[in-house]
């Protein structure tokens, strides 16, 4: 597909026009940080942002959602949950895009999850190329998520006064055709795009001391590392790490009921393997009772288990968990330390 | 790590667009009190529907307004014709709500889920069942399946333990099994009382009563987490091979379909790959036992 | 004629108080209002705590006037430490204070006072008999609570108010929506005035010394001089000259008096002293309620609250419009200028004049604290009112007499749990 | 049950600010239909009627004098379910602050030479006097949580009081963590359920809801120390609402 150019002004118009037909969400400032939020005017967007507090995942897997409604009378007549509106997600970084690809696999394979997939099918993703690292915590380059070849409908690269637009899907192409005034890239545009992309890569450091393809085996060999206990001693079990993670997808399911005690709804909401009760069963037995075991489980999932099950790594290097942790437990620190222990041991 | 085999699975949600979280309604046909804590529910399926389950599979049972809980199917496929049975221990919200229901009330169902016992592979072999406590509920499904096609199997040995005589489940059936000469049944309780003249001691103390030919024996156990290690040691002590040992594991479960993460044992989901596993499949899993 | 009225725990008031009245041979022998609330010792607890905690601790003196306590507490620290609030902070402080006045007055006139006039024991039967009144009350009260929550997070125990300003700022869209709701509220406010203008207030006159804050340019709720209807005017720092606390054995609350045998604070005192500065619409409401200063019927304290409901509604709309015009900018709290320090914070909380007085040490911890609560100031006056009221009602059957006495108590809107949280003057 | 089948509930107050009862009144603003499913038979703050045949008792406030114990016991006798309403009742709350000073000195400080007129002892939570079935934490309680607890009790479920830290709710609300602003917060060890309302409004969590069952206090103290707090400072922030809890822990440790 040919490369398209969208001036920044044209981008504003593009967004403004989409707002008539779509729920549009993108990065917006909040208290000195950024969040993905539904917008009502293009001026609310800030496309050049470091990272957001929660990942854009929340639009596909809401922190809390209704699975269905019931009434307790006559044994419960079931009704469908409310429909989600067609949505455009703007300004998704490539790390988050990789995470969404993982979620797509999780929720479409095995038992098909209509709730996630219905939303996903109604969502158009306009991602954006990162040109400089968010901060010292991002390690996308090490995780291979610093760019993406697929998973987006449209992909933007900031060329200063305009965006270069890669078209990834038919839906993206149609969106552009319907709402945007574009021009085809000329030689100068392409030269500048090449220059911008070439200039960006060296700005991102590798932060893992080993190649990411070794990560699963490093983890597997370190099931019994003393590091887990150290992490368990420090961990506050506050679940900040998993709650801000773009790939975590564990959830809890609950029944809610109205005060008439007749009508109600079954909801699911984000849950975390770091919390005490996550693996506790009747009789009080907890299959991962210690924080050490739970931290191990978390990192095993990120670097190995999810890969085993879904063919995507469970960590995309966004660095959110590292930023959120009050006791400095970071994936880079943990993975590098395990690698060091392994090297020292062998 | 050993790959987890997939046995023939019942396809409950055949079309992809169907909602895996949406329960269907079924009626409670009968409720039999078992012990102070357990009741057996006979569930009548919607007309024309058959469960088509395997022994060892479970249902997600809903009481609307209260929640959902995974419960093993306690009746055997051989005896489930438009109805099936659940044996429920009252321990929390959903199970208490179930206990307060009456015949004719409706409940919500999803499932059957999980991988049951590959009993076709047990044919021709001797089977040693070791249920502990509520562990009899899922194993009863398999035991009755085996008894209903009794000729296809070798010896059937059952070692059953409960905490006290009052907590023994399915007493009628235990009696009937005990009276059959093609079933070897031993029952024990941790603590006896004046009504009890049988064995006293934990379930592993029953192993001394039996002798088996390990190469041709399948050992199957289900019970509280603390019990597994000890039963396994007895199985090994009797010489049963890892591939011939089967366990049904309990985990916390929310979705039953491999998404919610609660039942994860290292890299596998107990609800999908289990709850029935051969020991060989899980022995490499740190968190399994 | 012998009668003994012993209302053990007056209901529909905040906190625990008992009425004890003994009439022997047609003569009033004994007449007491006992405060039996458990003492809480807030003053002693404040010692050693950082001044930054003081407003959070003292708001727990009273769940109804939590915002009032927090405000007086913050003003005491701010005065002590030389903190100057920005104009925006003042607007927000006043706005949330109006929310408090509205919330408390609505609760009082509708849920605590109105049932007496409608002949029922609580607001609950009114749900069946006068649903529109109850729904209106709930609607109005919800708005008041939401107004506070918009600024400070919640009405009971506000969060976002700190020494020097705020930690959270309402969004323009929230202000706009609130303005609209307040404008829509006018209908309910009018209906309230109408409802209360028709009530048969008991006839009872007893002049007393009315004490309140006063400011030259506004109907004073936060800061101002302490003035009395007997012509006294002192700056807040000299509050002791007016309050003169003393203790009586039948009460865990302290009593006060000034020029006369007793004094009164609250909506009626504010109305009497600051009538000229009321919003014109509030003055109209006063006319509809048949009130013109000086009003000396204690029962009309509730009517004065209705007048203030009008005033606070209108003034809230004005403040929000000002905020919308100037825009709301997140800003850091104003800085502390000096430490140590000593300061007095005053506010006209729903039930009257509230005074917090702190000494703050060099390490920012409170070394001494004193707090004078409106209800304390009123209880003495209440007993004097009772003495004047009993002879008028003692011929009535006991239940009616008891109700009449309870109504007098409720007219004060006493906040008894507040009143025992006395923080003693440490001089 | 009353004749109409509605369970009867009653509210009682001990040493408190009555903010929790007020929150109950506030919850009626959003949920007037509460009155369709329960019958309130006692609520001194809001009504004069007094019914004695209640099944569920909500108790607000701490016990701060011996003479209150009998009243508590009488409530326990009558009610089949006793719920502690708010931090005062649940954990003794701010009332326990006075216990940081010698009792006699505190009494004299406030009431001078009349100190003996007023009976008092160190504030204690209700469950130090009578068995309590459930507690609704918070100073004040959260009105949605109150409604959720009532619904659970009516359905025969365990009240849905979370046992995970405030941080969970705080992160899901996308608040900027208080620590990134250079201030400290007790969210990581405090029981959630309030919607992390304090951090949401820019203020630190002060643990008004008490601690989760299994907090990592050692690590928490390291975090606070790293943020520049002295041992004294740490003790002070740990005693705002949780003096009683902290003392119990210390006593257990011996
Ligand atoms: C595959 C499988 C088969 C089971 N078969 C049976 C059976 O045949 N009969 C039977 O009585 N029970 C069975 N259980 C156990 C049963 O699911 C739990 O006891 C039940 O979920 C408790 O639900 P509740 O709402 O009554 O309790 P809750 O009120 O939810 O909780 C009570 C306690 O159980 C824990 N718990 C919560 N959810 C679960 C969960 N999903 N699984 C386990 N523990 C949980 C809680 O941590 C709490 O400590 C089975 C469990 C599994 C995983
Ligand atoms: S817990 Fe807090 S709000 Fe509730 S009564 Fe006690 S001090 Fe008041
Ligand atoms: S502000 Fe407090 S509650 Fe929120 S995440 Fe940070 S530490 Fe946790
Ligand atoms: S954030 Fe903390 S202090 Fe605030 S209400 Fe919640 S638990 Fe209480």
What does this structure look like?
The complex is a heterotetramer of chains A (346), B (289), C (427) and D (254). Chain B is an alpha/beta fold. Chain B contains six helices and 15 strands. Chain B has helices at residues 93-99, 136-148, 171-179, 225-238, 270-273, 279-282, and strands spanning 24-33, 38-44, 58-63, 67-72, 83-89, 106-113, 126-131, 156-162, 184-189, 199-200, 217-222, 245-248, 264-265, 268-269, 276-278. Chain B is globular. Chain C has one domain: Orthogonal Bundle (Cytochrome-c3 Hydrogenase, chain B), CATH 1.10.645.10. Chain C contains 14 helices and 14 strands. Chain C has helices at residues 42-46, 51-59, 66-81, 87-117, 123-129, 131-152, 172-197, 240-243, 267-274, 280-288, 301-326, 374-393, 398-411, 416-419; strands at residues 3-7, 17-24, 27-35, 161-162, 165-166, 209-214, 225-228, 233-234, 246-247, 254-255, 263-264, 341-349, 352-360, 366-372. A four-stranded mixed β-sheet of chain C has the order 8-7-6-11. In chain C, helix 4 (87-117) packs antiparallel against helix 6 (131-152) and helix 5 crosses helix 6 (131-152). The radius of gyration of chain C is 21 Å and the shape is globular. The model of chain C is unreliable at 419-427 (pLDDT under 50). Chain D is α/β, with parallel strands linked by helices. Chain D has two domains: 8-154, Rossmann fold; 166-253, no CATH class. In chain D, helix 1 (19-30) crosses helix 6. The interface between A and B is large, with 49 and 48 residues. The complex binds flavin-adenine dinucleotide and iron/sulfur cluster (3 copies). The site of one iron/sulfur cluster has 12 residues of chain D, from helix 8.
Give me the secondary-structure topology.
The complex is a heterotetramer of chains A (346), B (289), C (427) and D (254).
Chain A: E1 4-7, H1 8-18, E2 23-30, E3 33-39, E4 64-71, E5 87-93, H2 94-108, H3 114-121, E6 123-128, H4 140-143, E7 154-158, E8 162-167, H5 170-179, E9 183-184, H6 187-200, H7 215-221, H8 227-234, H9 240-243, E10 251-257, E11 263-270, H10 291-310, H11 320-324, H12 331-345
Parallel strand pairs in A: 2-5, 5-6, 6-7
Antiparallel strand pairs in A: 1-8, 1-9, 2-3, 4-11, 7-8, 10-11
Chain B: E1 24-33, E2 38-44, E3 58-63, E4 67-72, E5 83-89, H1 93-99, E6 106-113, E7 126-131, H2 136-148, E8 156-162, H3 171-179, E9 184-189, E10 199-200, E11 217-222, H4 225-238, E12 245-248, E13 264-265, E14 268-269, H5 270-273, E15 276-278, H6 279-282
Parallel strand pairs in B: 7-8, 7-11, 8-9, 9-10, 11-12
Antiparallel strand pairs in B: 1-2, 1-6, 2-5, 3-4, 3-6, 12-15, 13-14
Chain C: E1 3-7, E2 17-24, E3 27-35, H1 42-46, H2 51-59, H3 66-81, H4 87-117, H5 123-129, H6 131-152, E4 161-162, E5 165-166, H7 172-197, E6 209-214, E7 225-228, E8 233-234, H8 240-243, E9 246-247, E10 254-255, E11 263-264, H9 267-274, H10 280-288, H11 301-326, E12 341-349, E13 352-360, E14 366-372, H12 374-393, H13 398-411, H14 416-419
Parallel strand pairs in C: 6-11
Antiparallel strand pairs in C: 1-2, 2-3, 4-5, 6-7, 7-8, 9-10, 12-13, 13-14
Helix pairs in contact in C: 2-3, 3-4, 4-6, 4-11, 5-6, 6-7, 7-11, 9-11, 10-11, 12-13
The complex binds flavin-adenine dinucleotide and iron/sulfur cluster (3 copies).
């Amino acid at each position: 597909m040919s490369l398209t150019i969208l001036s920044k002004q044209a981008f504003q118009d593009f967004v403004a026009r989409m707002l008539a037909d779509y729920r549009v969400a993108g990065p917006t400032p909040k208290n000195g940080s950024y969040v993905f939020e539904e917008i009502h005017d293009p001026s609310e967007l800030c496309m050049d942002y470091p990272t957001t507090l929660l990942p854009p995942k929340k639009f596909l897997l809401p922190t809390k959602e209704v699975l269905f409604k019931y009434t307790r009378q006559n044994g419960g007549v079931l009704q469908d949950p409310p429909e989600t509106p067609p949505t455009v997600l703007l300004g998704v970084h490539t790390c988050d895009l990789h995470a969404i690809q993982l979620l797509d696999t999780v929720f479409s394979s095995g038992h098909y999850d209509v709730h996630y997939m219905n939303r996903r099918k109604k969502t158009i993703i306009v991602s954006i190329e990162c040109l400089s690292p968010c901060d010292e915590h991002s390690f996308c380059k090490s995780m291979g998520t610093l760019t993406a070849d697929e998973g987006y409908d449209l992909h933007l690269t900031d060329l200063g006064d305009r965006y270069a637009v890669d078209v990834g899907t038919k839906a993206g192409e149609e969106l552009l055709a319907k709402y945007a005034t574009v021009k085809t890239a000329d030689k100068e545009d392409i030269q500048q795009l090449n220059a911008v992309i070439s200039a960006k890569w060296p700005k991102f450091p590798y932060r893992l001391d080993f190649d990411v393809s070794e990560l699963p085996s490093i983890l597997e060999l370190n099931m019994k590392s003393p590091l887990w206990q150290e992490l368990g001693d420090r961990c506050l079990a506050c679940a900040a790490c998993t709650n801000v993670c773009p790939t975590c997808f564990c959830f809890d399911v609950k029944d809610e009921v109205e005060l008439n005690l007749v009508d109600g709804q079954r909801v699911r909401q984000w849950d975390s393997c770091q919390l005490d009760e996550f693996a506790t069963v009747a009789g009080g037995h907890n299959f991962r009772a210690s924080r050490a075991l739970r931290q191990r489980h978390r990192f095993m999932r990120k670097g190995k288990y999810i890969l085993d099950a879904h063919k995507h790594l469970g960590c995309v290097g966004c660095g959110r968990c590292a930023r959120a942790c009050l006791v400095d437990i970071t994936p880079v620190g943990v993975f590098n330390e395990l690698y060091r222990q392994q090297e020292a041991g062998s | 790590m050993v790959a987890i085999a997939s046995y023939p699975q019942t396809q409950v949600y055949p079309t992809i667009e169907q909602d895996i979280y949406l329960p269907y309604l079924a009626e409670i046909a009968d409720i039999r009190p078992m012990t102070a804590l357990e009741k057996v529910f006979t569930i009548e399926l919607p007309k024309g529907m058959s469960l088509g389950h395997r022994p060892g599979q479970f249902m997600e049972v809903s009481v609307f307004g209260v929640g959902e809980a995974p419960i093993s199917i306690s009746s055997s496929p051989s005896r489930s014709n438009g109805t099936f049975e659940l044996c429920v221990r009252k321990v929390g919200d959903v199970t208490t709500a179930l206990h307060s229901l009456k015949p004719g009330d409706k409940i919500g169902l999803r499932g059957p889920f999980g991988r049951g016992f590959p009993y076709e592979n047990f044919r021709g072999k001797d089977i040693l069942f070791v249920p502990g406590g509520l562990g009899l509920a899922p194993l009863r499904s398999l035991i009755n399946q085996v008894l209903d096609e009794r000729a296809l199997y070798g010896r059937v040995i059952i070692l059953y333990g409960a905490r006290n005589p009052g907590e023994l489940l399915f007493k009628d059936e235990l009696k009937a099994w005990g009276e059959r000469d093609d079933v070897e049944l031993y029952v024990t309780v941790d603590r006896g009382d004046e009504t009890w003249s049988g064995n006293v001691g934990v379930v592993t103390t029953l192993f001394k009563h039996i002798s088996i030919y390990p190469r041709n024996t399948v050992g199957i156990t289900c019970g509280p987490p603390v019990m597994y290690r000890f039963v396994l040691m007895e199985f090994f002590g009797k010489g049963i091979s890892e591939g011939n040992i089967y366990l049904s594991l309990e985990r916390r479960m929310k979705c039953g379909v491999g998404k919610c993460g609660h039942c994860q044992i290292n890299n596998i989901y107990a609800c999908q790959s289990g709850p029935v596993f051969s020991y060989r499949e899980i022995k490499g899993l740190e968190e399994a036992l | 004629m012998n009668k003994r009225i012993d209302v053990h725990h007056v209901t529909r008031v905040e906190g625990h108080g008992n009425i004890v009245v003994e009439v022997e041979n047609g003569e009033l022998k004994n007449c007491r209002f006992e405060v039996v609330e458990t003492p809480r010792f807030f003053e002693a607890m404040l010692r050693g705590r950082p001044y930054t905690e003081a407003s959070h601790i003292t708001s727990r003196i009273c769940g109804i006037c939590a915002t009032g306590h927090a405000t007086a507490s913050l003003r005491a620290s701010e005065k002590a430490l030389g903190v100057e609030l920005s104009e925006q902070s003042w607007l927000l402080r006043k706005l949330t204070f109006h929310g408090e006045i509205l919330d408390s007055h609505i609760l009082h006139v509708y849920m605590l006072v109105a049932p007496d006039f409608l002949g029922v024991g609580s607001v609950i039967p009114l749900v069946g008999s006068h649903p529109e009144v109850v729904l209106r009350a709930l609607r109005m009260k919800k708005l008041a609570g939401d107004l506070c929550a918009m600024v400070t997070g919640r009405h009971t125990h506000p969060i976002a108010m700190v020494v020097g300003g705020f930690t959270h700022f309402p969004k323009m869209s929230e202000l706009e929506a609130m303005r609209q709701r307040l404008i829509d509220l006018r209908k309910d406010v009018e209906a309230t005035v109408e409802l209360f203008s028709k009530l048969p207030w008991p006839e009872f006159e007893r002049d007393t010394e009315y004490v309140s804050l006063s400011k030259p340019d506004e109907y004073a709720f936060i800061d101002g001089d302490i003035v009395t209807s007997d012509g006294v005017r002192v700056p807040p720092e000299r509050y002791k000259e007016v309050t003169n606390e003393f203790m009586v054995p039948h009460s865990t609350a302290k009593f006060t008096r000034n020029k006369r045998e007793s004094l009164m604070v609250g909506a009626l005192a504010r109305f009497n002293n600051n009538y000229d500065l009321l919003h014109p619409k509030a003055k109209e409401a006063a006319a509809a309620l048949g009130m013109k200063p000086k009003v000396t019927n204690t029962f009309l304290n509730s009517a004065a609250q209705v007048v203030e409901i009008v005033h606070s509604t209108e003034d809230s709309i004005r403040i929000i419009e000002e905020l919308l015009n100037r825009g709301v900018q997140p800003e850091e709290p104003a800085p502390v200028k000096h430490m140590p320090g000593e300061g007095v914070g005053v506010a006209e909380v729903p039930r009257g004049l509230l005074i917090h007085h702190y000494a703050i040490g060099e390490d920012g911890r409170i070394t001494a604290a004193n707090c004078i609560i409106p209800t304390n100031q009123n209880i003495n006056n209440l007993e004097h009112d009772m003495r004047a009221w009993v002879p008028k009602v003692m011929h009535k059957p006991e239940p009616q007499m008891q109700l009449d006495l309870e109504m007098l108590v409720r007219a004060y809107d006493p906040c008894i749990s507040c009143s025992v949280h006395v923080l003693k003057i440490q001089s | 049950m009353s004749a109409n089948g509605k369970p009867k509930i009653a509210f009682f107050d001990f040493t408190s600010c009555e903010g929790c009862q007020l929150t109950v009144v506030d919850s009626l603003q959003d949920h007037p239909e509460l009155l369709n499913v329960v019958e309130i038979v006692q609520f001194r703050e809001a009504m004069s009627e007094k019914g004695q045949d209640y099944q569920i008792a909500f108790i607000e406030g701490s016990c701060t004098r011996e003479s209150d114990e009998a009243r508590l016991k009488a409530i326990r006798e009558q009610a089949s379910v006793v719920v502690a309403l708010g931090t005062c009742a649940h954990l003794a709350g701010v009332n326990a602050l006075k216990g940081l000073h010698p009792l006699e000195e505190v009494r004299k400080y406030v009431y001078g030479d009349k100190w003996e007129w007023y009976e008092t002892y160190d504030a204690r939570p209700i469950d130090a006097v009578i068995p309590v079935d459930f507690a609704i934490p918070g100073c004040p309680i959260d009105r949605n949580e109150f409604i959720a607890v009532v619904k659970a009790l009516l359905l025969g479920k365990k009240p849905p009081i979370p046992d995970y830290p405030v941080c969970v709710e705080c992160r899901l609300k996308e608040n900027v963590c208080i620590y990134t602003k250079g201030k400290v917060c007790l969210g990581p060890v405090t029981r959630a359920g309030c919607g992390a309302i304090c951090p949401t409004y820019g203020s630190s969590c002060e643990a008004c809801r008490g601690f989760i069952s299994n907090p990592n206090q050692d690590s928490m103290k390291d975090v606070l120390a790293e943020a520049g707090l002295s041992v004294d400072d740490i003790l002070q922030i740990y005693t705002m609402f949780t003096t009683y809890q902290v003392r119990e822990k210390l006593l257990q440790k011996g």
